Structures are given as C-alpha cells and as structure tokens.
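[job 4471] stage=fold_predict status=RUNNING
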Amino acid sequence: MLLYVDDKGVEVVVHGVGETEPGYCVNAVLDTLAATRPGYSVSPANEYNRVSEPEVANPPPVFPVIRRGAAHNSGIEIEAVELHWADLTEGQPGRVNTLLQLFRVIFESHHLVDAMLNRTRDAISWALRKILWIAGWLIRGPSAALTIVTSAICALFLFEPPSVMATVMDARQQILIVTGVIFVGALYVFYRISRQQDYSWYDTVFWLAVSALVVFALTFNNSLLDLLRHVPELKVGPQKAASQQTLECAAGAANPACYIDGLYKIIIWGWRFWGGLIVFATVLLALSWVRARFTGDRSRLSTISTSIAILIMQFMLWTTVVVSAIYPMLNRAETITTMKEARPIIQNAIAAKQIAPDSPVAKLVQVPDIELDWIGRFKFIYASTAVTVLMLIIAGMMLIEIRQMKARRGLNDLEQTARNMPRLLFNPVLVGLMIMAFLIVFALVFVQPYLDNNRVFVNLRGYILPVAAGVALVLPFFFGRRVANVANFARDLIDHHYQPRQETAAYFVPSVFRMRHRRLRRERIQGRLNLVLEHFVQNQGYDGIIFLAHSQGSVIVYDYLRDNGPQYTRLGDAAPALLTFGSPLGSIYQKYFSEYAASNPVPMGIASRLKCWINLYRVDDYIGGRVSAPPGLRVDNHVMGMGGHTGYWTEPDVAEALDAILTGKVADATKPPPLPPPPMTPSAPYAVRAMRRV
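[job 4471] inference complete, writing structure tokens
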C-alpha cells in the first residue's frame, strides 16, 4: 500500500482509446479527484514539456508531456505526469479518415494472426500459421497489386474516346504508357514511405511496382497475350457457352478486351486459390475441434477460429473497398455493353437514312469495341461479399443491443452480469457465422456461371450491386464514433504485435533505410515511457508511483512492469502501484495471445515490487474486462455500471480507487466493489486486499 502522509508521490497517466488530446487525461482524473473526494486540491495550471526521442531519428522527433500537481490536506503531495503516444497510431480525425483507417487495418491485420498462432511444434497450428500467412500476403501483395494495375488499364480503355485507339495509338501502346506510369509512381511512393519509416504499405506498393514492371515487359516483348492464352478458361453456363464469341487474341491484336479479360481471369483464379487456402484452414480447424473433443483441451479453438475469421474479414473488406472504388468503371462497362447491343439497330437506321450519321443518337453507339465477360463474375463476388458484410454488421448491431439490454437488467448484480455478458469483439458466434458465410459464398462462386441464365438471379445481382456500394461508402458516416473507436483499438492491437519481418517487401528495402527500422512500434512507445520516467521520476525522490492506465495503456504499463523488474532503475526508490480501467489484458490479450497468457509465471520484478493492482471495468465495456491474475499476483477486479469503453477518467469510481491507494483507506471505503473481497481482517488496507504474493 502506498502511504503518502508527509511524503511525495507521482502518478504516471497513460491514455488509451478515445481520450488522446495531450493533457486531457491528467486534467480529467485530477479534477474528478478534487471534485468527488474530500481534502484534495489541484494546481490551477498545467506544465507543458516537450521530450525528444534521440534514438528514433536525426533530428529527433519530440512528443508532449503534460504535468500537473495536486495535494491532500493530510500532507500528501502528488505530481501527475501524462505519457502521450496516440500520435504514433491514431489516424486523422473525421469520418473520411475513419474509412482510411479501416483500409489501413485491412493491410496489417495479418500481424494479429501471426501473434495468435505463435511458433509451436503442434503440426496443425504450424500448418495453419503458414497457410494464413500466405493468404494474408496474397491479399496485400500480388492480388492487390494486379487488381490495381488491371483496373487502371480497364478504366483507360472504357473511358477514352473510340477515336483515340483508331487514330492515335493502339491498345498495346496504351498499356505500355499506363504500366510505365504506375511503375514510376510506385517506385516514388516506395521511396517516400521508406524514408518515413512506414511499413504499412510496403508489400502493396512493392508488388504494385513488380506487377506493373512485369506487365510492361511482357507487353513490350509482345508476349503478354501469348501467356494469357495459357491461363485456364473460366467455366460458363451452357447457354452462354453456346452463344459466346471467341475473341481473336493474337500477339499483335489491338482489341483491348484480350488484355483486360486475360488479366482479370488471373485475378479471379487467384481469388479461387485464396478461397481454397481458407477452406483448407477450415479443415484444420475441424481437425482441431475433433482433437479437442478427445483431449478435453479447447484452449486453442478460439484462437484458431478467430485467426481464420480475421483473414476472411480482411478479404471481405478489401473486396468491398476495391469494387466500391471501381464502381463507376463497372457502370461504364455495362453501359458500353448496352450500347453495343443497340448498335446494329442504329446502323440499320442510318443506312435507311432514318437517322443522320452525325446525330447524337448515332454518336451514342460510338463506344469501344470491348467484350468483358468477367463483369458478371466480378459483380457476383462483390455482391455476395457485400451481403455477407451487411449480415455481419446487422448481427453485430443486434449483439450490441443484447448486451445493452442484459446490462440494464442486471445492474442489481454487476458481477454476475459481467460474467454472463456475451463478447462483442471476437465473439465466437460471429466468428462462426463469418466462416460459414464465406464457405457458402466460395461454393456459390463455382455455381455462379450456371446462375447467369437465371433472370431472377441476374436482376437481384443488379439491384444488390449499387445498394452494396452505397452501404460500403456511407456505413462509416452512420457509425462514425463507434467505428472510429473500434478502428483505433484495432490499430493499437496491430501496432502492439507489429513485426516488420512479416512484410516481404522489407527484405528489398535498401540497407540505408532498413537500419532506421530497427525499432518496432511497441518499442517506440516503451521508449517514450522510459524517457518520461527518466526525466520526471528517476531522480525526484518520490516515495511511490502509481500507474493509471486506460485500455491499451494498461498493456503498455504491464509490459514495462514485466520486462524491467526487479530493479526498476527508472523508478528510483518509488514503490509502484497499478490502477487500470477498461483494460483489454484479460478480455483479449490473455485469451488470444500466448505472450500474455494468465498461466505464464509472473516475473519476479512484479511479484517483488508491485504494491497493488486494481482493475476497474464497466459491465457493458466491449473492450475492457476482468483481468485474470497470473500465479503469484493478486488483481482486485471491480465491476462498474454502464457507460461503454470511454469516459473512465471522469468516473468517481476511478477517483475513489485512486484515493484509496493514496491514503491507505480500508477496503470498505470503496463503494463499488460488487466482487466480494477475500477473507481479511477488518483493518486490512485496500491494497493488501488488492494484491498479495502467493
């Protein structure tokens, strides 16, 4: 227990999701402490400091550190120091930027899969890890790159005036120009992101340059069409096969459809291969389930199923974003198809002098002579994926309402309500529905050619496409803040497990840039915490230090306490205590990442120096929850009322727990705890109840 009578202590405040303005957290917690707990006073102003990070770059970047003092009339002196790290992970504010944040999450979610399926001698886990790594690499690498290159070529041919190809340059020359521009642009972007030390887009940009270069080289040598002819044809329905005209796609052909159809044929086959990988992964999941039935060990099932679901969601989001972006191109392609069907009628009318050759109607059918038989397949894949995403969103919204209803009804017994509250993130029902929905869609992809002749199916597909595109674009605007919080937490989760070695393009980065990437994102945040402790704690002679951490901040502090004990040189002689709220340590990290498993032995540094650990969480918090105490530790979990994941800093319960730590009040001074305390003497202080070495 930290007793601060006639002594000095320091609070290190570490923010999480939702409250990321410098100074907000330290002001909110101290103002709430003074407003709700008797005897406290706070200084009227903050002290703004700027600390440099010399090991990151030259010149070193700086980050803000906000300090504020407080005192208790018993003689306790408090200095609060805030660690700010949101600028390292947070995107720009605004609903459009929220959409971009989701897009960025798509390309980095494979880091979570790699962290969940850690290296093990278990054959199923090893095989699954490799399969999902390949699947993630295909989405963010070759598949994304080839889709961008092909869509750019297709857009050029669809929107250019027909006279350009006839009088200016043919399809081959235009492909050379487009791919050349893409290659040069990709090299420039790759250079910029290398200098900015941002691996987020490495694989996509690198493989974009590779894809553009390959298409350019093959087109320049007049060998692209010859190679595309060796790509297996996609199966079509019986009626369409009977009426389909075969394009003459010789090496010197000028018809752009030969290039577009061939390249998109590779993309669709790639999607099928990717789907096959996920099917194989699902088979391994089934084998794991069978083994768990015999062994009774179900600990790995949730991790395996969640890993597969993450990759499926990655594919769904990528497909939704891509097709929404090229939606105008698809509309143009359909318009061209319709105009070509009307061309013979109008030409006959012109021959019969019923329509003037220069009339607007005659010019209307002057469109590129392109047959794009892949459009129907592309639309079907997108429509099916979009419907699946919409169903999952509806299921998620229903789950939110169920959680809210259960929370309202169970306020009289918060502990029991919290234990029975269904998960929102990584919910097993939603995970199972996602996997099943994907398997159904994947099966329909192979059946789809035979459905092209069904009028009802074709009409339904035509209606779904614009609706799905609209929903994909406007969804973040309707769920702005909630989606932003989830996206920010996803970013924090990914950044915490980020490993540059997972990016294949990192091996092609010039050494002058590669050396600057020696610090991972997690390490940089830890570096900031170390700097704050060195500058404001180490040599100040404090008697105690209290870490106040919300959400992802609790993981940051836990990592420090785990990895730097038992000496804790940056704390000086101060004895640490820990107060967390809305922490994902128990609800996510301990459950899905073996690095944080509750069964792991507790480091000696924590067991020997940490005075107490109090964890608060709301009954309806969809991220934070109960923390399981590792062997050797005692965590005092307290359930609070409703309020979601943000806004903890102004909660009176947080101020009350902080007051109990500062003043050494007995356990019954804290109103919450709905969790019954363990047996103890009436005079036992709060912190003794909170944690005791076993």
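[job 4471] summary: Residues 95-505 form one domain.
[job 4471] exit 0
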